[in-house]
Amino acid sequence: MRFKSTRGRGGVVEDIYISNINVTGITTDALRFNLYYGGKAPNLSDLTNIKKDENDSPEVSIETPAFKNIYMNNIQIIEAESAGYLKGLPEMNLKNIKLENLTERLKMR
Fold first, then answer.
1. Are 86 and 36 spatial neighbours (Cβ–Cβ below 8 Å)?
2. CA-based nearest residue to 72, from 20, 25, 23
3. Does residue 14 contact residue 67 with C-beta atoms inside 8 Å?
4. Which among 53, 106, 42 is positioned nearest to 76, based on CA atoms?
5. Is the CB of residue 82 less than 8 Å from the CB of residue 30?
6. Is the separation of the CB atoms in 83 and 28 below 8 Å?
7. Residue 64 backbone dihedrals phi, psi, to 5 degrees
8. What pLDDT, in 10s, does the model give residues 15-60?
9. pLDDT at 70
10. Is the pTM of this model over 0.85?
11. In 3D, which of 16, 15, 34 has the Cα closest to residue 84?
12. DSSP single-letter state for residue 11
């Protein structure tokens, strides 16, 4: 399940309810929220090297996408690379994303 957008697109994705889903045989992340889709995301593997500048967190405008109030319940993930990946924007964090009763059996690495 992919939820994606990027700066410049704007819009709001909100009030979504997903329940009773089985996800099987996924080669990447089973759930993905990405507000850097098609854009340049910061490398978070080494937090000590991240530098803050004026381009890291632009002001919120009509072109800033927002994801909020998304509820997922009874999700079973079988054989995925990872259960989930969530990446919001510094100026517009993901808000009120709730996962309940999520079970996983990931691929062996």
1. no
2. 20
3. yes
4. 106
5. yes
6. no
7. -90, 120
8. 999 999 999 998 899 999 999 887 776 666 655 555 555 456 789 9
9. 96
10. no
11. 34
12. -
Residue matched to tokens 């990446």: 87
No. of H helices and E strands in the chain?
A: 0, 4
Structural domain boundaries of the chain?
A: 2-105
Side-chain half-sphere CA neighbours of 78 within 13 A: 5
pLDDT at position 96 over 90: yes
Residue 55 gets the label, from left (phi > 0), alpha (psi -120 to 50) or beta, of: alpha
Query: What's the CA gap between 70 and 81, in Å, rounded?
Result: 23
* β-bridge mates for residue 16, sequence order: 70
Place of tokens 């803050």: 52
* 3-state SS assignment for residue 63: coil
Q: Is pLDDT larger for residue 69 or for residue 104?
A: 69
